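Allow me, if you will, to draw on your knowledge of protein folds for a short while. The matter concerns a single protein, recorded as an amino acid sequence and a row of backbone structure tokens. Kindly check, if you would, that the fold set down in the tokens agrees with what the sequence suggests. You will find the record immediately after this paragraph.
***
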Amino acid sequence: MKKAAFAILITFICGIFTTSPLAAQETIRGDWMAEYYSRARSKSSNAPKVLLTIKVSSDSLGHRSSSSFTVPIADLRGLSLSETTQDLPQTRFELQRDAGTFFFEGLFRNGKGIGEFRFEPSSDYIAGMRSQGYSDLSSNKIFELAMFDVSRNFIQEMAGLGYTNQSLNRLVEFRIHGVSPDYIKAMRAAGYTELSASKLVEMRIHGVTPEYISEMKAAGYEDLTASKLVEMRIHGVTPSFIAEMKAAGYSDLTANKLVEMRIHGVTPDFVNKLREIGYENLSANRLVEMRIHGVTPAFINEIKQAGYDRLTVDKLVEFRIHGVSAKFIKELRDAGYTDLSADDLVEIRINGRDGFIRKSKRSQ
């Protein structure tokens, strides 16, 4: 009986340590820095914020970690806007998240704060997350979920919009990049109703907002795919760029052509400078070709100064392909080769001087 009772007691104690939500958790400690960040204002709120940086030593998480994020001052209990902009020799404030609470101690000087913090996870959060299927919650992961405010309410809202069973890493990614329920609803209102979780993150990273989509539609670009919108944002195809190209005489450009022009550096300034030196009414394809081969206004002017004026675009491209430069022309003249035609210059670059001479003799 004693052995049986002892075995039951041991089983009970082990059960406590293996099933308790906080069994594997610990208080995490580290350093913090804060700065009043007036630029960090969203379009939906003018609430003053601070840029908060949290650093954790290897003693707490098994490695060194540093993360920065903005927090509305109103969320920092015990700290006011005036206190962030004056000298405080001692301050204490808290940041309460669904996943746990950060306790800060330190000082502020000249609008910048510094000190130490501790983070205590929420047992209620851990239990609630486990009930939703997130059972393997390490101290490190709970700390990360708290920093980026991955709350149970956020998870439920995302699930209500069809994004269920997302990994914790994906949920953190959502929060870091601003994939919120409001963003998803706005994108759906703009006509993008079937976006994957990864596509939403990609669009947010590259700044594809409902406002950008609306501006592109106003510029005449409707029904663009999500991937095309991302591509256009990556390469800087903005409504202003489109308007400037239209003013330069290039309207009705396709989305693909706009991207191609941005990739190769065909800008309104490039077009205008070509016009100033006599190259007008060039097609979009021709402009791209010139940029690809380095036929710039500066190159054209150098060739003009070397005595070759009013060359066709085809010949200028040919020059660049075969390396006919102003320096090369001067070297030939210094060697006694004068009055060479543009075709002669290309021929010499292709076959060399000896080959050019042999060919010239045969043609005589």
